Amino acid sequence: LQRDLEEVRELLAKATRKRLRDVLMAEKLKLELEIKNQSPPKPKDGAEEEKLSLGGYTVKINNYGWDQSDKFIKIYISLNGVQKLPVENVQVNFTERSFDLLVKNLNGKNYTMTFNNLLKPISVEGSSRKIKTDMVLVMCRKKREEKWDCLTQVEKESKDKENAAYDTSDPSEGLMNLLKKMYAEGDDEMKRTINKAWVESREKQSKGDIPMDI
Question: How far is CA 58 from CA 105, 110, 138, in A?
Fold first, then answer.
């Protein structure tokens, strides 16, 4: 993050266009806020190093499920046999906008998962973890009882950018952008359907049946 911030500052110093400067300034403020919100890394003592080494190598967890209630964000992580571990081998550290999960020595491996920049603040004291059969449930207590649209700020910004890309005052342009997105993400059948519709619309336009190219 610090290196990103330094590069943004360099670009900002060179930028002359107002629009570009505004974008870079927004990115600079965002990075500064992320760096400020990050908790400083805790130095590992000898005991922690030894515990981590017990499980051999470390695997980063990428698959999970989640849902929410009025009071909690619930993250479900499937790990076969996790219920057989000593409870101290399953650790979760919470901050107001993040949490780290560490599962030690499960079938000869360590497992980790980190969530940074949660969408909204959580209560550290009210958050916890539960060990179930083949699953760890991380319970993040919301500070405010409100619905979350996604888990992290990064996900929200990604969705906002995607929506903005297809939000246009020109209906024909908006339709074209939507068709491009559907084509890029669709399967072979979807691509064939869109291609057929495109050919038919071009034929109608060439005959003067429709005035607008869709």
Answer: 9, 4, 20
Amino acid at 119: L
Residue 148 lies in a domain: no
Compute the C-alpha angle 196/166/158, nearest 5°.
120
**The total number of structural domains that make up the chain:** 3
Instruction: Kindly give, in sequence order, each residue whose CB lies less than 8 Å from that of residue 89, ignoring residues fewer than 6 positions away.
Output: 103, 104, 105, 106
Q: What is the pLDDT of residues 18-47, one digit of tens each?
A: 887 888 888 888 888 888 877 565 555 555
Rounded Cα gap, residues 92 and 138, in angstroms: 8
3-class SS of residue 92: strand
d(CA 136, CA 130): 6
In terms of DSSP bridges, do strands 135-142 and 72-78 run parallel, antiparallel, or are they unpaired? antiparallel
30 & 82 share domain: no
Relative orientation angle of helices 171-185 and 188-206, to the nearest 10 degrees: 150
pTM over 0.70? The answer is no
Asked if residues 201 and 212 have their Cβ atoms less than 8 Å apart, the reply is: no
CATH number at residue 85: 2.60.40.790
Query: Mind listing the pLDDT tens digit for each residue in 99-124?
Result: 999 999 998 899 999 988 899 999 99
Q: Which range marks the domain in which residue 29 is found?
A: 1-37
* Residue 161 counted as domain residue: yes
